[in-house]
Amino acid sequence: AYLDRIAEVDGDVRAYLHLDREAALAQAREVDERIAAGEDLGPLAGVPVAHKDVFTTVDMPTTAASKILSGWHPPYDATVTARLRQAGMVILGKTNMDEFAMGSSTENSAFGATRNPWDLDRIPGGSSGGSSAAVAAYEAPLATGTDTGGSIRQPAAVCGLVGAKPTYGGSSRYGLIAFASSLDTPGPIARTVLDAALLHEAFSGHDPRDSTSVDAPVPPVVEAARRADVAGLRVGVVRELGGEGYQPGVQQRFQESVELLESLGAKVVEVSCPSFDAALAAYYLIAPSECSSNLARFDAMRYGLRVGDDGSRSAEEVMSLTRAEGFGPEVKRRIMLGTYALSSGYYDAYYGSAQQVRTLIKRDFDAAFENVDVLVSPTTPTTAFPIGERTGDPMSMYLADLCTIPTNLAGNAALSVPCGLAPEDGLPVGLQIMAPALADDRTYRVGAAVE
Ligand code: GLN
Predict the structure, then answer these.
(1) Is 294 close to ligand 1, i.e. is its CB under 6 Å away?
(2) Interior angle at CA 202, CA 266 and CA 55, nearest 5
(3) Whose alpha carbon is nearest atom 10 of ligand 1?
(4) From the CA of 57, how far away is ligand 1's center (Å)?
């Protein structure tokens, strides 16, 4: 049914980069055989899933939506991919994204933009926009994404879906093509909080192949999603994430969610996190710095594309031609920004001070969580914007992640849950729920209570 739905609507939505109908059907038959043989595969057996094209898949190409990886077939599965295969999930295909997960609209894909199923002239969010569009258009019941600065929560919010950024280290980065390694976090995109929790639990947990993986039990997110109550819970509204500059309909739906939480028995207070004002600036030094280091591996020798290698050119010339043609403009912008921020003479002023801001943000969270159980804010300042509106203005594009970035810098958990449609444009609005590291279950508990 999902393959038929994809055939019907993906020409318009363009959520997928790679599809293999026969391979998907073969996987489904294999799962049937495993079940028939008595294997207990758990609750997701036979459920189809779409993977963001940043997770390696041994049986499908993986491009991170970059030309530089075209033609590359990974020799191994990412841990997320492998664990979901083990759980009996069937891979429908690989979804579109901003190139190397850099962007907020999926317009930075080298293979064309994905469209928001709510309004095909609008962006589906990004960078996991193919995954959010696929789930929103009923082209997949569940999808994986990655969140470095908001790339799961923001697309989930603007497509009317649930998306979670797990605690950093709670889900494995093994086989995830790196953007900013200290921030990158795999997570689920789904239609309901319980669906998201089931996927979250299925791929999370300690992985010795990822040096930053946390060796701790997976937070009981499924149980929390089923519990779905907030009586007695202390909820903090972050003063710095709201008000001026936010779309009125977003602000209105957020206010209503806060009132709903109160009516369900939560104790709501206002909380100030003053360093959050500097989060965006710090992120746009730290993320590009790590990206410039991570993307040095695309040297024309090891992966995918190689341009101008006709015997007449040096390795350096081939590398230069390959990178010039293989990387898109946003990726080049980030590599230049990051190389600059890391260069001697500028390191302390830029990268060093950004790291200090990162510590201040972590302290703001720690102080807030001494008095409240969860923090809430709108997930995004606006609803889905029209395709093309922000492509000429990187700064306005970067603002889409204003509310989500602090959580990535601090490494804690957050979830976005739909909270109605903005009256002025009829488009979905997201409520963001943030919790301390390894308390992911709290975000699910609150999310399930208000969805
Ligand atoms: N939009 C942010 C960026 O462009 C975040 C991306 C992400 O979370 N991968 O960097």
Answers:
(1) no
(2) 110
(3) 102
(4) 22
- Catalytic residue ranges: 52, 127, 151
What confidence score (pLDDT) does residue 341 get?
Answer: 95
Q: How many CB atoms lie within 10 A of CB 311?
A: 4
Q: Does residue 244 register a pLDDT over 90?
A: no
Q: What is the residue-averaged pLDDT of the chain?
A: 97
Write out the two tokens for 405: 């970035």
- Of 120, 186, 116, the C-alpha closest to 157 is 116
The two tokens of residue 407 are: 């959580």
One-letter amino acid for residue 167 of the chain:
T
Residue with tokens 């996991």: 128
331-366 core/surface letters (b: 16 or more CB in 10 A; e: else)? beebbebbbbbbeeeeeeebbebbbebbebbbebbe
pLDDT band of residue 71 (cuts 50, 70, 90) is confident
Report the candidate in 410, 396, 406, 397 with the shortest Cα–Cα distance to residue 438. Answer: 410
Ligand 1 atom nearest to CA at 146: 9
Domains of the chain, first to last = 1-451 (3.90.1300.10)
**DSSP E strand boundaries for 88-166:** 90-95, 142-147, 162-165
C-beta 443 within 6 A of ligand 1: no
Burial grade of 121 (CB within 10 A; 0-12, 13-18, 19 or more): exposed
Q: Which residues contact 397 (CB under 8 A, 6 or more apart)?
A: 103, 104, 105, 390, 391
Residue bearing the CA closest to ligand 1, atom 5: 149
Residue with tokens 């390959």: 322
Rounded-to-10 torsion of CA 391, 392, 393, 399: -10
Instruction: Give residue 409 CA to ligand 1 midpoint distance, Å.
Output: 12
- Closest atom of ligand 1 relative to the 128 alpha carbon: 9
User: 179, 283 in Cβ contact below 8 A?
Assistant: no
Which amino acid would we find at residue 93?
G
- The ipTM assigned to this model is 0.97
Instruction: Tell me if the bond preceding 127 is cis, omega within 30° of 0.
Output: yes
Distance in angstroms (rounded) separating the CA atoms of residues 249 and 217: 39
